[in-house]
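I hope you will forgive my troubling you with a question about protein structure. You will find the record immediately after this paragraph.
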Amino acid sequence: MNASAAPLPTSSGISDAARRWVMFALLAGVAMASLDSAIANIALPTIARELNSTESATVWVVNAFQLGTALCLLPAAALGEIRGLKLVYGIGLVAFGLTSLGCALAPTLSWLVGFRLLQGASGALTAALAPAIIRSIQPPAKIASGLAMVALTVAFCGAAGPSVAAAILSVAQWPWLFLINVPICAVAAFVLVRYAPPNQPQPRRFDIGGALLTALALGLLVVGVDTLGVHVQTAVFEIVGGLAALGLLIAQQSRRTTPLVPLDLMRIPLFSLSVLTSVCSYSAQILAYVSLPFLFQTVQHRSPVETGLLVTPWPLLVVVAAPIAGKLAAKHPAALLGSLGLACLATGLALLAVMPAQPSFIDVAWRMALCGIGFGFFQTPNNTTLMTAGPANRAGAAGGMLALARISGWCLGSALVAVVFALVPEQPTIACLELACGFAAFGAIVSVSRFKARRSGAAA
């Protein structure tokens, strides 16, 4: 660890009232980024019709946002450390509002996709830095609770995205899906500037070469994974290119003392194991989230409204479980809570895979609730461990890796759904649930190994 580096400020000097206002600004940024990653899906047919575009081309309204986020997460984390967390997060809020306005005023699909790419990049600033700011303003005993608020905000907004979009579209046109962000960003930015304490930046040169290699590697990998379900040969070419760029990136970053890609943090076993378990949990989550609607609507012939109600217990129980897990994380090791949570998630997924052919609402609901409890109990302790495993002056990089693990898990899980549906024509949804169960079970095993990693770290 770099003991000479300037630490981030602690919560001393900030009142409880100011801390609550700062948390509002942080959660507002996280909520908007989470909502906008899913809110446009339901409007794609309308956007395609009004902008005279094909449905396949309009899908890039969604893909561009995810791509922009993935490309900018690690550079955003580095900028937060170099220029100051408060400044860069505030820039992210303002930029998100401006790019949202651009999306609403876009005259063509090309303009809309371009602004969505920039909007995703702006969202990366808030997604990467919110956990680091929480660590800097909260006393040690409340860091887990603060991170639990982020986890449940992401879970709730991600699940509520389609419902929010439907409500907006019922009374307004699709540009209002983006216009609604503008006043929220303005208020959140004002609150952040007014109440967030300044933090000590760590001046150093921004690694432009590393940022470009990061964008190339992650861009090719994300696009390649997304292409797997459409054109396998092209996808393989893109993924191989991404892996080659990743190799060059690691070689370039290994020579730097404060790398853009936090290789210094990844050398800490407790940190790297927490990243791996996070990827496993989000892969399991998206495998279930994407495949279950096909089971409910195509196989069981339920309506979209019924499908939405059947999915609701999962995010609802995450909202309930995450704060409880945050309080328990202050007293019990994350290795224990995380393993129990992922084991509970794996059990719920396995039970979903073997439920009756025509289950009742209750049959589905209690299984989904079990998954939600498990996911909520894992995520908060794991995020707390990930954010506190390294030195305080690397909190920005840790926050970037936390967000990157989430995006990576979602991309991997989504690609696997496409692959399973292509290779397993008979009951592909059941195969997806079984694969999701495998990811959760493997994550539980990895989580258990953190007991040894923590003891080794303490001994060192």
